[in-house]
Amino acid sequence: MARPRCSVFIATSLDGFIARPDGGLDWLDRVHVPGDDHGFAAFFEAVDTLVVGRGTYDVVLGFDPWPYAGKRVVVLTHRPASPRHGEAFFSGPPAALVERLAAEGARHLYVDGGSVVSQFLAAGLVDDLTISIIPVVLGDGIRLFQGPLPERALALESARTHPKGLVQLRYHAVRPEG
Question: Which residues of 51-67 are buried (b: 16+ CB within 10 A; e: fewer)?
């Protein structure tokens, strides 16, 4: 049984925040160009399971329509919750979740939310990251990388600029030799 590929596709402010302190994402609108989703639709089509943190989940619950329709969603949380769209809740370590999802046939996970991304990085489970840097300094908010984290080597696959100043970086994890 092969481990599912674990991918991150996320936007961050220039100073490293993925959301305002209240979870707000309105600042992302400054780089919106009609008809250009910066590759997100193709990425989303390629994943079969989303693993999100509770904060991300709570924000996304307010979206209409539910943006994860047709995908399996697992929320990492220690707080009780009731599924509204068929999502599952998990409170263990990322490695145990990935092992369980692999046994259930998952092949490609979309890992989202600062805490979850950091937990997966710390566990050595992130295979690739696509990070879109938005040209704004928020000054405060929810950080993408929540440490301390162990050092992880990454290799740049591509760097692309978009209209309105967005810069998208794609990396893959470099596995330790040995």
Answer: bbbbbbbebbeeeeeee
pTM above threshold 0.85:
yes
Examine the pLDDT at 178 and tell me if it is beyond 60. no
Pairing of β 108-112 and β 5-13: parallel
Q: What is the pLDDT of residues 36-93, one digit of tens each?
A: 899 999 999 999 999 999 999 998 998 999 999 999 999 999 998 889 999 999 999 9
**Element housing 40 (H / E):** helix 40-46
User: Per residue in 138-170, pLDDT tens?
Assistant: 999 999 999 899 999 999 999 999 989 999 999
Q: Where are the domains of the chain?
A: 37-150
Task: Give the CATH H-level superfamily of domain 37-150.
Answer: Dihydrofolate Reductase, subunit A (3.40.430.10)
Which residues on neighbouring strands pair with residue 76, listed in sequence order?
53, 90
Strands 49-53 and 154-161: unpaired
**Quick check: 130 and 7 in contact, CB under 8 A?**
yes
User: How is residue 26 written in tokens?
Assistant: 């309105």
Task: Kindly state the DSSP code that residue 113 receives in the 8-state scheme.
Answer: S
Ramachandran assignment for 89, one of left (phi > 0), alpha (psi -120 to 50 degrees), beta (any other) = beta
